[in-house]
Structures are given as C-alpha cells and as structure tokens.
Design brief:
The chain is α/β, with parallel strands linked by helices and 414 residues long. The chain has 2 domains: 242 residues, Thiolase/Chalcone synthase (Peroxisomal Thiolase, Chain A, domain 1, 3-Layer(aba) Sandwich); 150 residues, Peroxisomal Thiolase, Chain A, domain 1. The protein has 15 helices and 15 strands. The strands form 3 sheets. The protein has a 10-stranded mixed β-sheet, with helices on both faces. A hairpin with a 3-residue loop joins strand 2 and strand 3.
Amino acid sequence: MIRSAQDDQRIVITGVGLTAPNGDNLADYRAALLAGRSGVGKYHIRYVGDTLAGQCHFDELKYQKRKEVRRGTRAGSVGIYCAHEAVADAGLDWPQIDPTRVGVYIGVTEHGNVETENEINEIKAFDYDTKVWSHHHNPRTVANNPAGEITLNLGITGPHYTIGAACAAGNAGLIQGAQMLRLQECDVAIAGGVSESIRTFGIFAGFASQGALAANADPARASRPFDRDRNGIVVSEGGCLYTLERYADAARRGARIYGELAGYAITSDASDFVLPNPEQQARCMHLALARAEMRADQIDLVSTHATATESGDIQECAAVRRVFGASPETLINNTKSFIGHAMGAAGSLELAGNLPAFEDGVCHPTINVDNLDPQCELAGLVLNEARENKSVDTILNNSFGMLGINSVVVIKKV
C-alpha cells in the first residue's frame, strides 16, 4: 500500500468502548435505542433526596482490582472500562503497541466535586478535623485525573490530559485526539468523554434551584426533549471513548472502520453564562461543514444536543433551521430522551448511538414526545419510532455547553 500525506491527515474511528444507562457496549446500547428502551431510573442523592438519574451498571472489576477502584474515582473507572473496550474493539495487538505513541484525550464537564463533597461529608462527623482528610484527595481531584487513571491502568506513556469543555466535552475529546494524530504526536488516540456527574449532589441542587431538574412519575418518561410538557434535565453518568487512527495505519492492518472524522469545529457564544445563542450554534455547524467540504443537504442525520429545557431546545432548533432549512431529507434525532444528560460524555455517547446507522440505515427516534413544542418543529425530526432511510452516509453531531461553548463533529462513512 502506498501511503500518502493526505491519508495521514484522514482520521478514522476503529474502536468504540462505552457504558450508558441502557447498555454497556455498542451492540446493547444500539438495541436499546432502536427498541425505545430508556435507562433512566429512580435515584437517591445526599441532601437532595429522591430524584431521577441515568445510572450505569458496568463491571468495575473487569479491568480493575477492588483496591484500585477504592483509591481512584468513578470517572476514572468509567474511563478505564471504556478505554479497554475501545482498544479491544479496534482489534489492536495491544502488547505490540508502542506505549509512547498512544495518547489519551478525555472530555469532562467537571471533575473533583464528587471527591470534595465526600471528604467534607466525612470530616463533618469529626468536627471538621482535617487530620481525617484522605491523602488520596489530591490525585483524585486534579483535572487530568480521568485521563491519568487510564494511562496508569493500561501502561500508556504517551501524552494525556482532560479537556474541560462543559457539556461540549465529548466532541472536544474526539477533536483533540484527531488533532494530535494529525500533528504526529501519537499513532493511536483514545478519545471521547466521561462523566461521574450523578455522584455529586451539587449538580442536582444547582439544576433544582434553576427549576431545571426533571421530575416524572414514570422515570423512563422523564427526559423529554422537544416535548411541550418537558420539565427539565435528567442528570446521568456514563462514558464513550473511541480508538482513533490515521486512515493509512488502519487500512494497512485491515481494521474495521466505523467512520471518518470529516470535519469539526469549536466556537464560543460570548453572550451568556447559561443561555444558548442560536446564531453562534449555527455558525459552529457551518464551520464544521466547511471543513468537511460538505453542504448541509449532504448530511443524512443530525444528532441534536437538546437537553429538555425550554430555552435550550428552542434555540437549538432555531439554529438547525438556519443550517438545514425545511428539508425532510435530513433526519434529526436526540439520544438524551433515552439516557438523560451524561454531561461530559453526552456528545461521544450520542454519536456512538448513531454510528451503526452507516450499516443499517436506521435513525433511532427521539422518545417521550407526546406533544411536540411548535417551536421545535423540524421537517426531518424522527419521533417515537425509528425510521429507515435509503442510506446514511454522513452524520453531524451537536454538543453544546455552559459559558457558551459549542462543538460539532461531522462523521462520514468510509
């Protein structure tokens, strides 16, 4: 095979490792999405009390010892599980991979809150005597922790860091991995996003104080993007990491390729702490399309970020209309209706749920939409039942976050 400089700039996905509230591998997760099976359930959290959340049920001890789980963090355990699964799924002969040429790039919304809350709760019983404060606190709470735990567990000695990008972080991790491969800083990138958000009461309390925490007698119906009767966000944990390689390397070893990262963009609103800006969201989509050298009408499926808050859903729908117009040819869906909002893992998990559409041509639906909000009407919106398309060759994945950070990736079938 003749290797070209162009092939060295083409970045492809060769492995997927994930844990979601409704599946611990891509096959089970995809089956749940096509069957309309939610992963949201009842949950109890300190100080907040009984609420709802998307909780994962992966085997923490599959790749870690009990002592390692106790010493580390939930985000680290999620990342370690997903990284191992992604490497295995890629079919890499791991013992033969040069550990100095593997990079780990993990998107997170926040990190360290869980550990700090737990430690403060513990010393409260000792009249706040800091002598009982854990000596594990600092390595647990440093910003690079989730990525660092992965390198320790897998023996990776290449570059690693986390990317703090609020709820745009899953896409941001993927983008960072691709950029480092293009710069020849690594030959294999483990990239995506993880979240331990349901372990911190502060996130639940913060959304509750905004009136943005979802409630429903039926937990499976609580996350309702685009529905007129939605009442807020379902907080979830999870993770999805990808094995990324340069196309030439993947082709040379005959790897299965899920898709190619054709274009991407990260932009800022510079307008509000929380409220989204549809003009800037649309600009981010346009920029990603331009880098992919694609027109909007060449996108077969749009995966939306919509979180089931009124302002967020409506503003994103306005942005999608600006880019894609009223064409019913582009199918549009949402994954948070199944799993809630997995924060730093949201973008990477939502992309993963749609990747199999390249093979089966099916767009999974947005569930729990009984009364579509008129301001969320989109021509290609797929509601409540999966829809088969003649083919799906391109996916645009939106992921947006607080402080006005926007991320978009465009994936194409190879």
